[in-house]
């Protein structure tokens, strides 16, 4: 008989949420009933919507992006816009970011580690299998980009060219964001998921973490570059770590025993 043992973890959880994440989650409407700790949840970011023209020739106005981010707060993360199910995660916090001339809303979302399928979701997102997202929302008026009227009544057709200008429509009068979904193919180009840009705290404060602390020790398992820095004083040797495009200075100190 042949037997085989497999061991090891496909992808470790590389990110520890920070206290700012917990504060934002507990400030949501209908907050968690129990006080969550950083060990209780997974957190990821989602490029959920942009102000580029989507595959339906609709487009958010750049000025509406902060409002969209506001409206997504506390909304559920669903699978494939299936409203017959409950969410697998919940949006909180995040930013509006400009990337290569496109404005994005990038909310964060969290889900509890104690859920029986929590690691399945994390592994599928982190491995890139779940790779696109889509926002569900309600709005009042599709405004024609050519004439500025309601496109349902004007002479122009979205997707056609008029004097070499592509006709599209703006999503005007956004009323509600009902949910954001993991989808097999999003209507907007470039959606997807990211690890939090920071390691739990403000990105700038990461530089002051000790390499020996639990947070940065996890980070150190996933570094792309590590190089010694000349010792500056008697505080101990330092290392320069480059992780996901950011540079961190880490001070080596012995672990304190409690
Ligand atoms: Zn028109």
Walkthrough of the structure:
With 258 residues, this protein is mostly beta strands. It has two domains: 19-194, Serine Protease, Human Cytomegalovirus Protease, Chain A, CATH 3.20.16; 203-251, no CATH class. It has four helices and 14 strands. Strand 8 (161-162) and strand 9 (165-166) form a beta hairpin. Bound molecules: zinc ion (ZN). Zinc ion binds next to loops. Zinc ion is lined by residues 144, 146-147, 149, 151, 154, 156.
Characteristic key phrases:
single chain; 258 residues; mainly beta; Serine Protease, Human Cytomegalovirus Protease, Chain A; nine-stranded mixed β-sheet; three-stranded antiparallel β-sheet; 14 strands; 12% helix; 34% strand; globular; binds zinc ion
Question: What's the topology here?
Answer:
Layout lengths: L18 H8 L14 E7 L1 E2 L7 E2 L5 H8 L3 E4 L9 E11 L2 E11 L5 H9 L5 E13 L16 E2 L2 E2 L2 E15 L8 E3 L19 H7 L4 E5 L8 E6 L2 E6 L7
Parallel strand pairs: 3-10, 4-10
Antiparallel strand pairs: 1-6, 1-11, 2-6, 4-5, 5-6, 7-10, 8-9, 12-13, 13-14
This protein binds zinc ion (ZN).
Zinc ion binds next to loops.
Shape: globular
Instruction: Tally the beta strands.
Output: 14
Ligands, ions, cofactors: zinc ion
Q: Uncertain runs with pLDDT below 50, 5 residues or more?
A: 200-236
* Discrete helix count: 4
Q: Briefly note the structural class of the backbone.
A: mainly beta
CATH top level of the largest domain is Alpha Beta
Mean pLDDT: 81
How many domains? The number is 2
What share of residues is helical?
10-25%
Estimated radius of gyration: 22 Å
Secondary-structure element order, N to C: HEEEHEEEHEEEEEHEEE
CATH topology of the largest domain: Serine Protease, Human Cytomegalovirus Protease, Chain A
Strand percentage lies at 25-35%
For the sheet with most strands, the description reads:
9 strands, mixed
> How far apart are the first and last residues' alpha carbons, in Å?
49 Å
- Based on the structure given, which CATH architecture of the largest domain is correct? Alpha-Beta Barrel
């Amino acid at each position: 008989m042949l037997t085989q043992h497999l061991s090891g973890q496909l992808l470790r959880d590389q990110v520890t949420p920070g206290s700012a994440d917990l504060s934002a989650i507990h400030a949501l409407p209908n907050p968690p009933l129990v006080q969550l700790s950083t060990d209780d949840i997974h957190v990821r970011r989602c490029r959920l919507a942009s102000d580029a023209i989507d595959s339906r020739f609709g487009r958010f106005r750049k000025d509406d992006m902060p409002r969209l981010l506001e409206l997504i707060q506390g909304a559920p993360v669903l699978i494939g816009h299936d409203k017959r199910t409950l969410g697998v995660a919940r949006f909180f916090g995040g930013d509006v970011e400009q990337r290569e001339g496109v404005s994005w809303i990038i909310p964060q979302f969290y889900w509890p580690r104690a859920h029986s399928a929590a690691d399945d979701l994390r592994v599928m997102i982190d491995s890139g299998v779940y790779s696109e997202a889509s926002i569900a929302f309600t709005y009042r008026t599709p405004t024609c980009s050519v004439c500025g009227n309601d496109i349902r009544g004007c002479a122009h057709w979205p997707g056609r060219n008029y004097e070499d200008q592509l006709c599209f429509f703006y999503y005007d009068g956004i009323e509600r964001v009902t949910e954001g979904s993991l989808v097999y193919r999003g209507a907007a180009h470039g959606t997807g998921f990211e690890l939090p840009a920071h390691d739990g705290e403000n990105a700038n404060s990461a530089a002051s973490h000790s390499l020996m602390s639990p947070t940065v020790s996890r980070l150190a398992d996933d570094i792309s570059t590590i190089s010694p820095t000349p010792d500056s004083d008697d505080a101990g040797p330092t290392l320069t770590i480059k992780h996901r495009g950011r540079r961190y200075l880490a001070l080596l100190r012995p672990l304190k025993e409690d």
